[in-house]
Amino acid sequence: MTGPVVGRFAPSPSGYMHLGNLLAMLLAWLDCRSLGGELVFRLEDLDPARSKRVYAEAMAADLRWLGLDWDRGWPEEPACAQSARTAIYETAFQTLLDRDLVYPCRCTRSERLAAASAPHPGEREFDSGCRCAHLSRAEREALLRADRRPAWKLRSPDTAITVPDGHYGAFTQNPARELGDFIVRRADGIFAYQLAVSVDDMLMGVTRVVRGRDLLSSAPRQKWLIETLGGQAPDYCHCPLLTGGAGKLSKRLGSLSTEVLRKEYAPEQIIGRLAFLCGLIDRDEPVTARDLLPVFSWDKVRKEDIPLV
Ligand code: GLU
User: Using CB atoms within 10 A of its CB, is residue 98 exposed (0-12), middle (13-18) or buried (19+)?
Assistant: First the structure.
């Protein structure tokens, strides 16, 4: 993309931050700052059952403590929290509705796939389809009049979409064939991750998305949604995941949170360790994020996932 570079931190405050999240944040910061860009802090707190303010505040404090600063966003701008952006998603949703790209669905199976948060490994995403996609106008109106509200699914594009990922190269996916239709709004009215992220990246002028490679398979849908809504998709650059013995070391596994790390290590030790593990420096030694700017290059960053020993 041309024009000013805008990157983003987009954590979900559903737990304390972990080394796995931090690696993606460090790379997002290095990528954006090395390009002279502006960073936005966006809070992905769509799911009220899982999001907690205490985690959001801890995440912001952790990033500051590590020297990973940003230029605008939550909490100074409350509108940078997804929970405050429902009216914005509503407008985008209406555009999709007007173009018959979404349809109501009351299948409980579909609702189980209705994630408000980002899909992470092990979470099943494939939707083999249901009759709701083919209802007559009368059947659809009856469904909308029923007591229980429906979820809303997007008619997945049946076309090959290529995302030129900055780290992993071209990634092509046919969303209709590989994923099926997907939920953009849950039955409880909450907008789903795929819609919210696409609308936010578009409206916040994000030009660089750096995040874990578990979200690479979401990028073609997000690119398509942004372009369908009249925007220009950002450049995507996915990064390797840190894995523990049992797969991805995520905050969901409930160990090694920054709460624990901050008691035992200095920020430079954590940044140095992450930089060493992902291939940016040759020795595991303390460095600041700023020290890494002159040596940062995506060519040095490993492609394979990184086992934490
Ligand atoms: N909020 C997501 C997460 O914490 C990241 C979403 C994204 O970067 O698109 O996993």
Answer: exposed
Give the pLDDT of residue 124.
62
In short, whether 46's Cβ falls inside 6 Å of ligand 1 is no
User: Does some domain include residue 1?
Assistant: no
pTM above 0.85, yes or no: yes
Q: 126: domain range?
A: 86-195
Cα angle for residues 229, 149, 50 (degrees, 5° grid):
75
Assess whether 70 and 154 both reside in one domain: no
Residues 213, 175 share a domain:
no
State residue 129's pLDDT score: 76
Residue 253 is predicted with a pLDDT of 39
Separation CA 25–CA 157 (nearest Å): 31
Domain contains 148: yes
Q: 112 with 146, same domain?
A: yes
pLDDT confidence of residue 153: 95
* Residue spans of the chain under pLDDT 50: 247-254
Q: Where are the alpha helices (DSSP H) in 16-136?
A: 19-34, 53-65, 86-98, 108-112
Query: What's residue 1's pLDDT?
Result: 66
Query: Could you tell me the distance, in angstroms and rounded to a whole number, from the CA of residue 142 to the centre of ligand 1?
Result: 36
Res 249: pLDDT: 46
Q: Do both 178 and 99 map to the same domain?
A: yes
Centroid of ligand 1 to alpha carbon of 76 (angstroms): 20
Q: Is the CB of 82 under 6 A from ligand 1?
A: no
Q: What gap in Å lies between CA 259 and CA 240, rounded to an integer?
A: 23
Closest of 200, 236, 199, 195 to residue 219, by C-alpha: 236
Does 92 lie in the same domain as 184? yes
Q: Where is the domain boundary, 195, 222, 246?
A: 195
Neighbouring CB atoms inside 10 A of 101's CB total: 17
Domain-ending residue, one of 195, 219, 235? 195
